[in-house]
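Hi all, long-time lurker, first post. I run a small reading group and we've been trying to get comfortable going from sequence to structure in the token notation. Rather than ask abstract questions, I figured I'd post a concrete chain and ask someone more experienced to write out its structure so we can walk through it together at our next meeting. Sequence below, copied exactly:
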Amino acid sequence: MELASIIKYEGDNSTFIWKHPCEDFNTTTQLIVHESQEAVFYMNGQILDRFEAGRYTLQTQNIPLIGKFYNKVFGDKTPFHCEVYFINKTEQMAVKWGTDSKLEYIDPIYKFPIQLGASGEMTLRVEDACKLLVKIVGTEHNLSQASVVQKFRAFLMTKFKTYMANYIKSNNINVFEIDENLQQMSNDLQEMLVPDFSEYGVSLVHFFIATIVKPEGNEQYAKFKELHYRQYTEVAEAELKQKTAIINAETEAQKKIIDSKAEATKREQEGYTYQQERGFDVAEKVASNEAVGEMSNLGIGLGVMGAVGGTVSGVVTNSMNGALGQVNDQPKKCPKCNANLPSNAKFCLECGTKLENKCPKCGAVNSIDAKFCPECGEKLGGAKDEK
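-- Answer (accepted) --
Happy to help. Here is the structure in token form:
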């Protein structure tokens, strides 16, 4: 046996408690504890002391050289037993758990029996090393993550299944909506399980339900699943069509507003109003009417002109006067010398022949070559009878 030993632990971070293999060491042995650790010193089967981070000198009843002769009485074994356990104080994440059997219940919406499994992860931390050593570890050499889950499985599964069934029933959640509630269920379960873990000196820092295992191969489950998703698909399609129609209507309305604003800006820049623009259109149509000479068309045109504003009325009137002038302003010919004369000439500019033929009965003025008065039918002498 060495005169003194150095005891320390630098193992993996997935172990909660580890017993150092060096036992029955001599006094003055050096103990080194890291920041993330705690050491528990056993002497003669009892917890003698606990050590935080640092270096310590352990005092035991095993004295070098003298103890060698004393041990001869006990078959070269010391009766002064001592040992050291190292406790990992870090938060151990991703500690996996899962149900060992299916949870059976009646779906509250579709009223058919269903079986569910679940799995997830949790984060654990040693809260009371002495309590964990006494109640869980005992004389074992180490306590791993798998060992913790295995030892806590009984109350973990019992509480999980009971809570899960009651939560689904009280909140009226169907099997296809369970995933939407995993966060709330995880938080509630953590709160329920904390006292059970704490009783053994372990702190349940986080608890997560990651997966709900559903009976995908079950024929009845598949039928209700199709029914459920078809119902929501039809509703979603109807809502999509309605939203699309509303968006299209709003887009068309916005387009009309933009076009109207553009037209209004154009009119304002060019100096006329909407009513004037409509009047210009009417005047253009009336002016281009091939039958403008007919009284019926004239009546229609004049009626329209009377309905528009003053400025437009003037434009239409000028257009009409120009059109009528083109009809009446035809050149005349002298019946005597055949000279070309203006339409309003009353005497020939070449020979002086009088170009008007006045009715002796009603006094109506007629063309020089008229033989009868169109007003009273009186026979006229014509231009050849004039002197």
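A couple of things your group might point at:
The CA atoms of residues 81 and 244 lie 83 Å apart.
The first strand starts at residue 6 and ends at 7.
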